[in-house]
Design goal:
single chain, alpha/beta, eight-stranded mixed beta sheet, five-stranded parallel beta sheet, 21 strands, about 30% helix, signal-anchor, metal-binding, transferase, glucuronosyl-N-acetylglucosaminyl-proteoglycan 4-alpha-N-acetylglucosaminyltransferase activity, endoplasmic reticulum
Length: about 725
């Protein structure tokens, strides 16, 4: 009985305690709301430390008066709904796929700018990238996608680049159609003090390609988050990443760094005002300065002078080059210039920007390149980065370089990535998968029209653990009429057909005279196909449905080789299927006097080009040559009947970032007499060399950088030139003159 009374008493005590806790907590919350309404100050985050220890935090009343994050989530959603009425847009509801049908289904049209229209440098670069892309059309009837000619990058009303009356102007476009099939580029939205994502006009059903996008407002599968970039960002090419291959150790002098502005009030000030707490001046350097803006001295706090002095002690570039991790806190907006700077420097970004939809998040796996922190847990960042192992540090740094060079090093790449993502959505049945976007060489150099299977691309063989095929197709470029059975091409046919790896031979006929009948050609143990090159030099690298093998052996009609030389080069190519493997080398150099690139054919120990007059490569490069490169470069090749081999080397090196491979060859050849009726060798033309010099500079200008890579690497057969019995050598013929 007494035990029962004890349990009853214990239950009553528990109920009383719960009631007191519930009503007491409720009253405390009500009291907090009442005092908040009466204007009393509420302790800001972080509330677990004494305010005396955080003198850099702005007063909460001041922050609320300045606007910013004080708005409730409901108020922010209502504000967003008022600005973007089509917040539920998706590709299947707000995009007209009917405009994107036909043979050339994806074309982009730019509205012509109005007379006297002001366009910023950054927007001019974006428009130039679209115009120079393979998707541009000047006919709006062909267009699948439309880009405004009006500058929409800076929608801050206080900016000199702000364009007023946007609603009225875009409604004047006859094809606007409430924004359907339009893409709007934007870097800066909103203005002081809230910096909302208001663009100042109704975007309707247009796709937003926007920097500093918030995840709350991002329309998945429709909008595209782009990086914030400066007006100095290069149009093409851009600088290479700073990570040197096989850098050991992967960790640098400083573990973690940040150097930038500190905002005393307003949105974005909370995070940057707290950064000094993790600064130790040794392996963690976190520096901020108040010295920015016109009236900074009027608003400076007690810590400003000390911060400014400490700020001047360290050089930003020195920190960037020598830090393993780089803090990327939000500024007034979610995005920051620090993001791209960190990627280029191989300084692993540590993000402190809650709610930021990362650039190209639809396709890029950012967990392989960045550390995502939490603004509210800043003090945990040092222990978090210290816990990252050495192997992961190296992997993260390598991934930053891959992403920087593939998608972010130039405005061209940022714009093309945006267009390719939209194109993949439009043609979802022929699109890239996540692996293609996140593995070398990057999604821009993988054209899904060629294939959607990884095993069909040479640069994925190693990752997939597969080997290239065991046969090759020889493509012989013929420009001279067949007048004699003793011409070099006849002997070349016999030599190539004797290779046990030769699957077929294709003669690309580019002579002025029609090709001879099949009976005029010698009998072959392999199929012989004659195709019309239409007298275009670039046709030797155009896709050819007759090519059934992965390996292509490109040959000039006057090439002199032995069957054993061909077999050895093919074996080498099988180990390096993503590169050009061949015989005749050439090189490029920088001429400081002319301030231009030069071209040389001198025999030296260094080379950067292997001529395609006798070289192996993968057939995918035919597709890339025809569909990735602009028609202007192919037209240059056809107009001069020159430089197609240099252009192919540029293309392959831009994909691999590696040099071609030269293999051993006989250095002495008998001069072949020029037969009557045959063409003079192209190198005998005095303009030939000058044209090639000009081609190198033209190609480098289009790529935006010099992709060719020098090498001193040459592969010889085992026992090549060794003083041993010839009977012990597999490729004994290579040493005979």
């Amino acid at each position: 009985m007494q035990a029962r009374k004890k349990y009853v008493l214990l239950g009553l005590c528990t109920c009383c305690w719960l009631l007191l806790y519930y009503w007491g907590g409720l009253q405390e919350r009500l009291l907090g709301l009442l005092t908040h309404r009466r204007g009393e100050v509420v302790r800001p985050w972080p509330n677990w430390l004494d305010r005396d220890l955080l003198p850099g935090y702005a007063d909460q009343a001041e922050l609320q008066n300045a606007g910013g994050p004080g708005d409730s989530p409901r108020q922010r959603r209502q504000s967003w709904a008022g600005i973007y009425k089509d917040s539920r847009c998706r590709m299947d509801t707000c995009f007209d796929f009917a405009r994107c049908q036909g043979q050339s289904s994806f074309r982009v049209y730019i509205y012509p700018p109005e007379k006297g229209e002001r366009v910023s440098e950054s927007y001019r670069k974006i428009l130039t990238s679209v115009v120079e892309s393979r998707y541009f059309t000047s006919d709006p009837r062909e267009a699948c996608l439309f880009v405004l000619g009006i500058d929409t990058l800076d929608r801050d009303q206080l900016s000199t680049q702000f364009v007023p009356n946007m609603d009225e102007r875009i409604r004047g476009y006859p094809l606007w159609n409430d924004g359907r099939n339009h893409v709007i580029f934007n870097l800066y939205s909103g203005t002081w003090p809230n910096y909302t994502e208001d663009l100042g006009f109704n975007v309707g059903q247009a796709i937003l390609a926007k920097a500093s996008l918030n995840t709350e407002h991002f329309r998945p599968g429709f909008d595209i988050s782009i990086p914030l970039f400066s007006k100095e960002h290069p149009q093409k090419g851009g600088e290479r990443g700073w990570l040197v291959r096989n850098t050991v150790p992967p960790r640098r002098k400083y573990l973690l760094m940040f150097k930038g502005k500190r905002y005393l009030t307003g949105i974005g000030s909370d995070t940057r005002n707290a950064l000094h707490h993790i600064h130790n001046g040794k392996d963690i350097v976190s520096l901020t300065t108040c010295r920015h803006g016109k009236d900074w001295e009027k608003h400076k706090d007690a810590r400003c002078d000390h911060d400014n002095q400490e700020y001047e002690r360290f050089d930003y570039q020195e920190l960037l080059h020598n830090s393993t991790f780089c803090l990327v806190p939000r500024g007034r907006r979610l995005g920051s210039f620090r993001f791209l700077e960190s990627l280029q420097a191989a300084c692993i970004p540590v993000l402190l920007s809650n709610g930021w939809e990362l650039p190209f998040s639809d396709v890029i796996q950012w967990n392989q390149a960045v550390i995502e922190g939490d603004e509210r847990l800043l003090l945990q960042v040092p222990s978090t980065v210290r816990a990252v192992g050495t192997d992961r540090v190296l992997a993260l740094r390598q991934r930053t370089q891959m992403l920087w060079e593939a998608y972010f090093s130039s405005v061209d790449k940022i714009v093309l990535t945006t267009l390719e993502i939209i194109k993949d959505r439009v043609n979802s049945h022929i699109s890239r998968n996540k692996f293609m976007w996140n593995a070398l060489p990057g999604g821009l150099l993988v054209l899904p029209e060629y294939s959607t299977h990884l095993a069909h691309y040479p640069f994925y063989y190693l990752n997939l653990g597969i080997s290239p095929g065991q046969e090759f197709t020889a493509v012989i470029h013929a420009t001279s009429p067949l007048v004699s059975q003793s011409q070099p091409i006849m002997k070349l046919l016999q030599v190539v057909s004797k290779s046990k790896y030769c699957s077929q031979i294709i003669i690309l006929w580019n002579s002025e005279k029609p090709p001879p009948h099949r009976s005029k050609w010698p009998p072959m143990p392999v199929p012989l196909i004659i195709t019309d090159g239409r007298r275009k030099t670039s046709s030797r690298f155009l896709p050819n449905a007759a090519i059934e093998t992965e390996a292509v052996l490109s040959l000039d009609e006057d090439t002199v080789l032995l069957t054993s030389e061909i077999n050895f080069a093919f074996h080498v190519w099988q180990s390096f299927p993503e590169r050009i493997v061949g015989y005749p080398p050439r090189s490029h150099f920088w001429d400081p006097v002319k301030k231009a690139w030069g071209y040389t054919s001198k025999w030296t120990n260094e080379y950067s080009i292997v001529l395609t007059g006798a070289a192996f490569y993968h057939r995918y490069y035919h597709h890339l040559f025809s569909h990735y490169l602009p028609s202007s470069l192919r037209a240059l090749v056809d107009r001069t009947s020159n430089c197609e081999d240099i252009l192919m080397n540029f293309l392959v090196s831009s994909v691999t970032h590696l040099p071609p491979i030269k293999v051993a060859q006989r250095k002495q050849y008998k001069e072949m007499p020029i037969l009557q009726g045959t063409k003079m060798a192209p190198w005998a033309n005095p303009e030939h060399f000058t044209q090639r010099q000009e081609c190198v500079n033209t190609f480098a200008s289009w790529f935006g950088y010099m992709p060719l890579v020098h090498s001193q690497f040459r592969l010889d057969p085992v026992l090549f030139k060794d003083h041993v019995s010839v009977l012990r050598k597999r490729y004994k013929d290579l040493e005979r003159v």
